[in-house]
From TrEMBL:
Protein name: Ribosomal-protein-alanine N-acetyltransferase
Family that this chain belongs to: Belongs to the acetyltransferase family. RimI subfamily.
Domain of life the protein comes from: Bacteria
UniProt cross-references to PANTHER family, sorted A to Z: ACETYLTRANSFERASE, ACETYLTRANSFERASE YPEA
Species the sequence originates in: Megasphaera stantonii
All residue ranges annotated as the N-acetyltransferase domain in the record: 1-147
Alphabetic keyword roster: Acyltransferase, Cytoplasm, Transferase
Listed NCBIfam families: rimI
Amino acid sequence: MIVRKAEEADAQGIFDVETESFSVPWSLQAITRELANPNLTMYYVLADEDGTIAGYAGLWRVLDEGQITNIALKQQYRRQGYGELLLRVLMEAAWEDGCSDIFLEVRVSNIGALHLYRKLGYQVLSVRKNYYSEPEEDAYVMDCKKENYQWITNSYKKDE
Protein backbone atom coordinates (compact mmCIF):
# COMPACT_ATOMS: atom_id res chain seq x y z
CA MET A 1 0.00 0.00 0.00
CA ILE A 2 1.18 3.50 -0.80
CA VAL A 3 -0.14 6.97 -0.04
CA ARG A 4 0.25 9.49 -2.83
CA LYS A 5 -1.19 12.81 -3.90
CA ALA A 6 -4.49 12.27 -5.72
CA GLU A 7 -4.76 13.00 -9.44
CA GLU A 8 -7.82 13.81 -11.54
CA ALA A 9 -7.68 10.27 -12.94
CA ASP A 10 -8.39 8.98 -9.39
CA ALA A 11 -11.93 10.43 -9.34
CA GLN A 12 -13.68 7.12 -10.09
CA GLY A 13 -11.66 5.23 -7.49
CA ILE A 14 -12.38 7.88 -4.86
CA PHE A 15 -16.06 7.79 -5.83
CA ASP A 16 -16.09 4.00 -5.35
CA VAL A 17 -14.70 4.42 -1.82
CA GLU A 18 -17.14 7.25 -1.15
CA THR A 19 -20.22 5.23 -2.16
CA GLU A 20 -19.11 2.27 -0.03
CA SER A 21 -18.41 4.46 3.00
CA PHE A 22 -21.16 7.07 3.29
CA SER A 23 -24.96 7.00 3.36
CA VAL A 24 -25.02 10.29 1.44
CA PRO A 25 -21.95 10.13 -0.84
CA TRP A 26 -20.55 12.95 -2.91
CA SER A 27 -21.26 12.66 -6.63
CA LEU A 28 -18.57 11.72 -9.14
CA GLN A 29 -18.96 15.23 -10.59
CA ALA A 30 -18.29 16.84 -7.19
CA ILE A 31 -15.20 14.70 -6.66
CA THR A 32 -13.92 15.55 -10.13
CA ARG A 33 -14.37 19.28 -9.35
CA GLU A 34 -12.46 18.87 -6.10
CA LEU A 35 -9.51 17.17 -7.81
CA ALA A 36 -9.45 19.79 -10.58
CA ASN A 37 -8.92 22.61 -8.09
CA PRO A 38 -5.50 21.99 -6.42
CA ASN A 39 -5.13 25.66 -5.47
CA LEU A 40 -7.93 25.22 -2.91
CA THR A 41 -7.97 21.49 -2.21
CA MET A 42 -5.54 18.80 -1.14
CA TYR A 43 -6.35 15.11 -1.65
CA TYR A 44 -4.35 11.95 -1.00
CA VAL A 45 -5.18 8.37 -1.89
CA LEU A 46 -4.20 5.01 -0.45
CA ALA A 47 -3.55 2.63 -3.34
CA ASP A 48 -2.74 -1.07 -3.35
CA GLU A 49 0.00 -2.65 -5.46
CA ASP A 50 -2.17 -2.80 -8.59
CA GLY A 51 -3.16 0.88 -8.26
CA THR A 52 -6.70 0.32 -6.95
CA ILE A 53 -7.81 3.11 -4.64
CA ALA A 54 -8.42 1.67 -1.17
CA GLY A 55 -9.03 4.97 0.60
CA TYR A 56 -8.65 8.72 0.43
CA ALA A 57 -8.48 11.87 2.52
CA GLY A 58 -9.21 15.44 1.48
CA LEU A 59 -8.91 18.97 2.75
CA TRP A 60 -9.98 22.47 1.71
CA ARG A 61 -7.43 25.23 2.29
CA VAL A 62 -8.56 28.76 3.19
CA LEU A 63 -5.74 31.16 4.08
CA ASP A 64 -3.96 29.50 7.03
CA GLU A 65 -6.75 27.06 7.88
CA GLY A 66 -7.57 23.60 6.63
CA GLN A 67 -10.99 21.94 6.65
CA ILE A 68 -10.97 18.17 6.29
CA THR A 69 -13.67 17.17 3.83
CA ASN A 70 -13.63 13.37 4.13
CA ILE A 71 -11.49 10.45 5.17
CA ALA A 72 -12.70 7.07 3.97
CA LEU A 73 -11.46 3.54 3.42
CA LYS A 74 -12.99 0.53 1.73
CA GLN A 75 -14.31 -1.91 4.30
CA GLN A 76 -11.50 -4.48 3.99
CA TYR A 77 -8.82 -1.84 4.76
CA ARG A 78 -10.38 -0.44 7.93
CA ARG A 79 -8.94 -0.90 11.43
CA GLN A 80 -5.43 -1.57 10.11
CA GLY A 81 -3.87 1.86 10.68
CA TYR A 82 -4.45 3.13 7.13
CA GLY A 83 -6.86 5.86 8.25
CA GLU A 84 -4.24 7.25 10.62
CA LEU A 85 -1.61 7.05 7.89
CA LEU A 86 -3.81 8.95 5.42
CA LEU A 87 -4.72 11.56 8.03
CA ARG A 88 -1.10 12.09 9.10
CA VAL A 89 0.08 12.51 5.48
CA LEU A 90 -2.73 14.98 4.78
CA MET A 91 -2.14 16.97 7.96
CA GLU A 92 1.62 17.15 7.47
CA ALA A 93 1.11 18.36 3.90
CA ALA A 94 -1.30 21.02 5.18
CA TRP A 95 1.18 22.17 7.84
CA GLU A 96 3.92 22.37 5.19
CA ASP A 97 1.54 24.40 2.99
CA GLY A 98 1.09 27.00 5.73
CA CYS A 99 -1.98 25.86 7.67
CA SER A 100 -1.88 26.57 11.38
CA ASP A 101 -5.26 24.99 12.23
CA ILE A 102 -7.16 22.06 10.75
CA PHE A 103 -10.87 21.65 11.42
CA LEU A 104 -13.24 18.75 10.83
CA GLU A 105 -16.71 17.48 11.67
CA VAL A 106 -17.32 13.97 12.94
CA ARG A 107 -20.45 12.06 13.95
CA VAL A 108 -20.78 12.06 17.74
CA SER A 109 -21.24 8.26 17.59
CA ASN A 110 -18.04 7.61 15.59
CA ILE A 111 -15.98 6.46 18.56
CA GLY A 112 -13.11 5.07 16.48
CA ALA A 113 -12.64 8.32 14.57
CA LEU A 114 -12.94 10.39 17.77
CA HIS A 115 -10.21 8.28 19.39
CA LEU A 116 -7.91 8.80 16.39
CA TYR A 117 -8.55 12.54 16.19
CA ARG A 118 -7.87 13.02 19.90
CA LYS A 119 -4.70 10.93 19.59
CA LEU A 120 -3.46 13.35 16.92
CA GLY A 121 -4.23 16.47 18.97
CA TYR A 122 -7.79 17.43 17.96
CA GLN A 123 -10.12 18.99 20.50
CA VAL A 124 -13.90 19.41 20.40
CA LEU A 125 -14.91 23.03 19.85
CA SER A 126 -18.69 22.73 19.50
CA VAL A 127 -21.61 20.58 18.42
CA ARG A 128 -23.54 21.02 15.18
CA LYS A 129 -27.08 19.79 15.75
CA ASN A 130 -28.47 17.43 13.10
CA TYR A 131 -25.44 18.02 10.86
CA TYR A 132 -25.64 14.55 9.32
CA SER A 133 -28.56 12.89 7.60
CA GLU A 134 -29.38 9.25 6.91
CA PRO A 135 -29.22 8.76 9.84
CA GLU A 136 -29.73 12.19 11.32
CA GLU A 137 -27.07 12.89 13.93
CA ASP A 138 -25.12 15.68 15.58
CA ALA A 139 -21.50 16.37 14.71
CA TYR A 140 -18.60 17.49 16.83
CA VAL A 141 -16.60 20.31 15.32
CA MET A 142 -12.96 19.59 16.15
CA ASP A 143 -9.77 21.58 15.68
CA CYS A 144 -6.09 20.68 15.74
CA LYS A 145 -3.51 23.42 16.02
CA LYS A 146 -0.15 22.79 14.41
CA GLU A 147 1.69 23.02 17.74
CA ASN A 148 -0.64 20.42 19.30
CA TYR A 149 -0.04 17.99 16.44
CA GLN A 150 3.72 18.51 16.61
CA TRP A 151 3.72 17.78 20.34
CA ILE A 152 1.68 14.61 19.87
CA THR A 153 3.90 13.51 16.99
CA ASN A 154 7.14 14.20 18.85
CA SER A 155 5.85 12.42 21.93
CA TYR A 156 4.72 9.45 19.81
CA LYS A 157 8.11 9.17 18.08
CA LYS A 158 9.97 9.22 21.42
CA ASP A 159 7.92 6.26 22.66
CA GLU A 160 8.76 4.06 19.67
